[in-house]
Amino acid sequence: MVLTEAGVRRELKNLPEGEKNFQIEKGVIVTPSARQYLNDRNVKLVVVDKLTNKNSKVEASNQSEDSGKIFPKYKCFQGGYLEEKPEHMTQLYGNKLVFKDHKKIVLRGKIDSLESKILETQVLSVKLQNEKLALELEEILSFVREILRCEVLEKPLGDINLIGMNEKEIREISHDPKKYFNMEHFFTSYKMGEIVVSINSLRSAVREVEIEAFKAFKNEEGEVSREDIIRALNRLSSCFYVIMFRCLTGKYK
């Protein structure tokens, strides 16, 4: 017997409010799209020896509907199914395929590039014997990877805490450097040194990622989803700005 996404959709409507377990009997084949549908809604798939509850109806309905059907491996957002993934397409969520210029795929590529730039700056920091900065960049790198993970899995991003600052502190310090570093806002110059110039490149790279995030999460009506990710990227660029001040005022020595 095969359990499809359509069958899961029907049965979930009958689950009591707050119920997070969906039971199936041993031996039931669950299609990839059905598993992804449950994962997206944080519903746990529970395998039991024999069903004795409300889920039992779905087996009979799926068995009659799906007998003899072939379930392709991939589902296209534009409609239809594919057994093999074409080179010009990639997986967006689960087994759902989109073209590689999809806005969210472009965003993921930008995040990947940002990670590479952070690693390059870490190498430079170690070369210049600034281990403390390299460690802070490692923390930021983990945060960027968490942003990507939460986007791919459609999970909310947690609180923003970076290199000893929470979200409010990052914003406040970056907006008032005179108070915290006795320095005014500045335009970056080569005279500030290669590490400051490199951090500035990270700051501007985050801005590019933030723009792609806005494009990816804005619908036709101008409404924006994933404000948590967009806000995190905004704070991340401010965090790099704070690091530049730390470098210039000798905080890493």
From TrEMBL:
<keyword id="KW-0067">ATP-binding</keyword>
<feature type="domain" description="Cobalamin adenosyltransferase-like">
    <location>
        <begin position="81"/>
        <end position="245"/>
    </location>
</feature>
<dbReference type="GO" id="GO:0006580">
    <property type="term" value="P:ethanolamine metabolic process"/>
</dbReference>
<dbReference type="InterPro" id="IPR016030">
    <property type="entry name" value="CblAdoTrfase-like"/>
</dbReference>
<dbReference type="GO" id="GO:0005524">
    <property type="term" value="F:ATP binding"/>
</dbReference>
<dbReference type="GO" id="GO:0008817">
    <property type="term" value="F:corrinoid adenosyltransferase activity"/>
</dbReference>
<protein>
    <submittedName>
        <fullName>Cobalamin adenosyltransferase</fullName>
    </submittedName>
</protein>
<keyword id="KW-0547">Nucleotide-binding</keyword>
<keyword id="KW-0808">Transferase</keyword>
<dbReference type="InterPro" id="IPR036451">
    <property type="entry name" value="CblAdoTrfase-like_sf"/>
</dbReference>
<dbReference type="InterPro" id="IPR009194">
    <property type="entry name" value="AdoTrfase_EutT"/>
</dbReference>
<dbReference type="GO" id="GO:0009236">
    <property type="term" value="P:cobalamin biosynthetic process"/>
</dbReference>
<dbReference type="Pfam" id="PF01923">
    <property type="entry name" value="Cob_adeno_trans"/>
</dbReference>
